[in-house]
């Protein structure tokens, strides 16, 4: 566990942060030699991190595995060994040069397919969103009308109890209560018809 933590820190600091700062300095100074040096490093480091994903899963049980990774990153960076330059010039550049046309065609096809897929799923996503919006609007309208009805019925029942006891708390005659209930029902019915 300790070896893993140390290797992660070394790769982070010496494999990523230091080269990033050095690349910044190369851009700032506009030194072409430094540009080339750090571009070769970043290409090799990208390949290293890609391979590292798989080796960490399958080879981490090997003795001194993490120490070897640390040594490899130091070798890549060392101005004495020029490891990234050696790997790039001997292996990566010749391989990429011979396969460049095939890689470009594959990337072009992948880009076209990804664009078509993006458009296809974009259309599906818009259809789903539109359907969801319409359903939410129709459900929302039903909920709103139910709420309005429940409020109006609640208001009627509170008004009914108010009319049962007239002003000043005196009880009203049955005929007057019946007439006010009939008026309230007709008002409620006309309101419900108007709202739907």
Fraction of helical residues: over 70%
How many beta strands in the DSSP annotation? 0
Our estimate of the beta-strand percent is: under 5%
Write the H/E string, N to C.
Answer: HHHHH
Radius of gyration: 38 Å
As for the number of domains, it is 2
Q: What is the distance, rounded to the nearest whole angstrom, between the alpha carbons of the first and last residues? A: 69 Å
- Major sheet: none
Class by SSE composition: mainly alpha
Low-confidence blocks of residues: none
Average of per-residue pLDDT values: 76
| Total of helices | 5
Silhouette: elongated
Itemize the secondary structure elements and their pairings.
Blueprint: H1 2-29, H2 32-58, H3 65-77, H4 83-164, H5 174-195
Helix pairs in contact: 1-2, 1-3, 2-4, 4-5
GO molecular function: microtubule binding
GO biological process, one term: endoplasmic reticulum tubular network organization
Main location: membrane
Walkthrough of the structure:
The chain has 196 residues and is mainly alpha-helical. The chain has two domains: 2-120, no CATH class; 139-195, no CATH class. Helices cover 88% and strands 0% of the residues.
